[in-house]
Design a protein that fits this description.
The complex is a heterodimer of chains A (about 575) and B (about 170). With about 575 residues, chain A is α/β, with parallel strands linked by helices. Chain A is built from 23 helices and 20 strands. A 6-stranded parallel beta sheet of chain A has the order 3-2-4-5-7-6, with helices on both faces. In chain A, strands 11-10-9-12-13-14 form a 6-stranded parallel beta sheet, sandwiched between helices. Chain A has a 6-stranded parallel beta sheet with strand order 16-15-17-18-20-19, with helices on both faces. The longest helix of chain A is centred in the first third of the chain and has 15 residues. Chain B is of the alpha+beta class. Chain B has 2 domains: about 80 residues, Alpha-Beta Plaits, CATH 3.30.70; about 70 residues, ACT-like. Chain A, domain 2 (Alpha-Beta Plaits). Chain B has 4 helices and 9 strands. In chain B, strands 5, 6, 7, 8 and 9 form a 5-stranded antiparallel beta sheet that branches. A 4-stranded antiparallel beta sheet of chain B has the order 2-3-1-4, covered by helices on one side. In chain B, strand 6 and strand 7 form a beta hairpin. Chain B starts with 6 loop residues before the first strand and ends in a 6-residue tail after the last strand. The chains are: A alpha/beta (about 575), B alpha+beta (about 170). Chains A and B meet through strand 6 of A and helix 1, helix 2 and strand 4 of B.
């Protein structure tokens, strides 16, 4: 039940926690410190469960994973100074991928602001470019309004993180306001309303003239839960569907109309479809550089349709021939009504040919490969697990081989490419989805950036599975150095990494080791079916590259499908 | 208008919230727009302020900047104004030194440009001149032969014509 009336003798911190309870917050991920003590004090006896993490970055990624798995904002609570700055990477990650998150930071007392007080950092200023919005609270009685606005802003329109900086004197002072549910005061905040019918009709008309259409599903479709509507659209049109890294699963990747992921390490057939389509309709993707390679050469001659909730995305990278601003689900539901089935048999046959000619493949000839481990993981889980990946080669292989059948079952740091994200994100997802199988697929590099959260897993008895794809390298950079820098390896050798089974055991977590092809299936089964947490340490071939590959700055028709035998020129595109 | 085409006048109506100026400035800075002038002043509604920014950059980037600025929670409205749909004015102060023999020609320049003398002391004069950016530029040119000691300009103020809101 909501408590809307403040009790007598309530502090600002108590009002804050009561407001969070009223907004349905189940968990707060946090780490305490001097400036945040009043808030932690107010959590004693609250129905919100405080999850003590080992590092503030872990807290932000957990809140992020929780938000992606449930659609509800994740809440983080940290102290001032270093506590606050340690959240920056996590906030940036959430911002890049449009994830709803509320970050509460303790702050030094207001009279000391700007005077270099102990553990003072201007987190409001530091975080300005990476938040959807932020507050520095100056008046205790403003707390309920600010919390209400923060929850509204973070998860409407295009979601994004909101930071609330809370000076200690403000949270300690008496709350004397007369309601915990005041009016919001954000006259400048605009959320796109109903999609314009004229825009939808214009798009429908363009479909009518298309012989080789392609639907591109992005993260916006996942956030809007547009999957059902997209399926209806694809089936009615008989249009093939491809997806971005973050769009995985919103249209099932096991569907015959699915081409899987496109882009830098997408399937050859999805990228070939890009070069051949005469119409591409993005549903909640922002045509980012991992997809378009080179905007000037992107889908030349094809009509480009763009559905996005953020007006600033229209024309940012690609100038569309038609667009519609609004919620992806609402727009696609309308669009379905006005499109007509297309005569696409030739087109689908052509794509079927590419699928047969250029399947994703791997071999055992030289030893155990990451691809094989992930291929078997797919066999064991059948797309029913929530998979959270870290960043690098394993992420791309997992995207290629772990086909997703639902959008919220795939969690990955796409825009930011944050190493260290996968494991804590999986923890957050497990909190949000306690009955689901959650697997973190991580590399040996990224895992070591946030592995300290094994303690959080142990303490909270979470059955998270961690699959470490260990190739002893920062593999993606090594791949670039091999392909584009004459194999001059620099700063990629991860010698000195621990025995991950022993590491897990020292946290009282079960460890499973895989280093032979014949053990993969059996040990994965053993680990996945174990009722508690497991760290699976898969030692794979050290020098293995991700293909297909569209070098950065190149267009899809310059894709490398097989390992090249000649030297490649250095990429011109972004990273 | 004599100004180069890549100079733009952008008007932003913002809620009076802490940090709003920095938020707007960050959108410009991140995308490589140099801000030439920036005026923040109260609007009719005391809850809102008006920012008028002139900045240099290409049109496509400008479009992005306007959209990104409009997205800021504390921004009520952001848009570009051209000389056609709006009136713009600037105010400037000039401190001039002159010799007695130049007094007549300086007085004539002041009259011709409808400038005002605000202060005369120690062989210097402070002049006020308001007008379009081009008029101010031309007045400044004329003053150069006397010797401009100091100059300050308000930055451009803009207001949409007719019933259109700025």
């Amino acid at each position: 039940m909501k408590t809307l009336q403040p009790s007598k003798k309530m502090t600002g911190a108590e009002a804050l926690i009561r407001c969070l309870e009223n907004h349905g917050v189940e968990y707060i991920w946090g780490l305490s410190g001097g400036a945040a003590i009043p808030i932690f004090d107010a959590l004693v006896g609250s129905k919100i469960k405080l999850i003590l993490v080992r590092h503030e970055q872990g807290a932000t990624h957990m809140a992020d994973g929780y938000a992606r798995a449930t659609g509800k904002p994740g809440v983080v609570l940290v102290t001032s100074g270093p506590g606050a700055t340690n959240t920056v990477t996590g906030i940036m990650t959430a911002h890049m991928d449009s994830v709803p998150m509320i970050v509460l930071t303790g702050q030094t007392i207001s009279p000391m602001l700007g005077k270099d007080a102990f553990q003072e950092s201007d987190i409001f200023g530091i975080s300005l470019p990476i938040v959807k919005h932020s507050y520095l609270v100056k008046n205790t009685n403003d707390i309920p309004r600010i919390v209400k606005e923060a929850f509204h802003i973070t998860n409407t329109g295009r979601p994004g993180p909101v930071l609330i900086d809370l000076p200690k004197d403000i949270t300690s002072a008496a709350f004397t306001g007369d309601t915990l549910d005041p009016k919001m005061d954000i006259p400048g905040y605009k959320i796109p309303g109903k999609p314009r019918k004229a825009d939808i009709l214009k798009m429908a008309k363009m479909f009518k003239n298309s012989k080789r259409p392609l639907l591109l599903v992005g993260h916006g479709a996942v956030i809007a839960r547009a999957g059902e509507a997209i399926k209806k659209l694809a089936y009615k049109l008989q249009s093939p569907v491809t997806n971005t890294l973050l769009g995985k699963g919103e249209f099932s990747e096991t569907d015959p109309l699915s081409l899987g992921m496109l882009g830098m390490h997408g399937t050859a057939y999805a990228n070939l479809a890009l070069t051949r389509c005469d119409l591409i309709c993005s549903i909640g993707s922002r045509w980012d550089d991992r997809i378009n390679g080179n905007p000037a050469k992107f889908c030349i001659g094809a009509k480009k349709l763009h559905i996005d909730i953020d007006p600033a995305e229209i024309g940012k990278i690609v100038n569309p021939d038609a667009y519609c601003i609004g919620d992806a689900r609402l727009i696609v539901e309308e669009l379905v009504k006005y499109v007509e089935p297309l005569e696409n048999k030739e087109w689908l046959k052509e794509l079927e040919g590419y699928k047969k000619k250029y399947p994703l493949k791997f071999s055992h000839e030289k030893g155990l490969t990451a691809q094989y481990v992930l291929h078997e993981l797919q066999n064991v889980t059948q797309g029913k697990a929530i998979i959270a990946t870290d960043v690098g080669q394993h992420q791309m292989w997992s995207a290629q081989f772990n086909l997703a059948i639902k959008g919220e079952r795939w969690i990955s740091s796409g825009g930011a490419g944050t190493m260290g994200f996968g494991f804590p994100a999986a923890i957050g997802a497990q909190f949000g989805r306690p009955n689901d199988l959650v697997i973190a697929v991580v590399g040996d590099g990224g895992f070591q950036m946030t592995l300290y959260e094994l303690a959080t897993v142990f303490v909270n008895k979470l059955p998270v599975k961690v699959l470490i794809i260990d190739n002893k390298y920062l593999g993606m950079v090594r791949q670039w150095q091999e392909l584009f820098f004459d194999n001059r390896l620099s700063g990629v050798d991860l010698e000195g990494s621990p025995n991950f089974v022993k590491l897990a055991e020292s946290y009282q977590i079960k460890g499973v080791h895989i280093d032979k092809v014949e053990h993969v299936r059996e040990r994965l089964e053993e680990a996945i079916h174990f009722p508690g947490p497991v760290v699976i340490w898969a030692e794979v071939l050290k020098e293995n590259n991700v293909f297909p590959m569209v070098p950065a700055g190149k267009s899809a028709d310059e894709m490398i499908i097989e390992p090249p035998t000649t030297k490649l020129e250095k990429p011109t595109g972004s990273t | 208008m004599t100004q180069p085409k890549n100079i733009h006048t952008i008007s932003i109506l913002v809620a009076n919230k802490p940090g709003v100026l920095v938020r707007c400035a960050l959108v410009f800075a991140r995308r490589g727009f140099n801000i030439d002038s920036l005026v923040v002043s109260p609007s009719v509604n005391p809850k809102y302020s008006r920012m008028t920014i002139t900045a240099q950059g290409d049109l496509q980037t400008l479009d992005q900047i306007i959209k990104q600025t409009n997205k800021l929670v504390d921004v009520i409205h952001c848009g570009e104004h051209t000389g056609v749909d709006s009136i713009d004015r600037e105010l400037s102060l000039f401190k001039i030194k002159y010799s007695p023999s130049q007094k007549a020609s300086l007085s004539s320049l002041i009259r011709k440009n409808k400038a005002r003398v605000l202060n005369e002391s120690q062989g210097t004069v402070i002049l006020e001149k308001s007008g379009t950016t081009a008029e101010l530029n031309s007045f400044e040119e004329g003053l150069k032969k006397f010797g401009i000691i100091e100059m300050v300009r308000s930055g451009k103020l803009v207001m949409a014509k007719g019933r259109e809101a700025t």
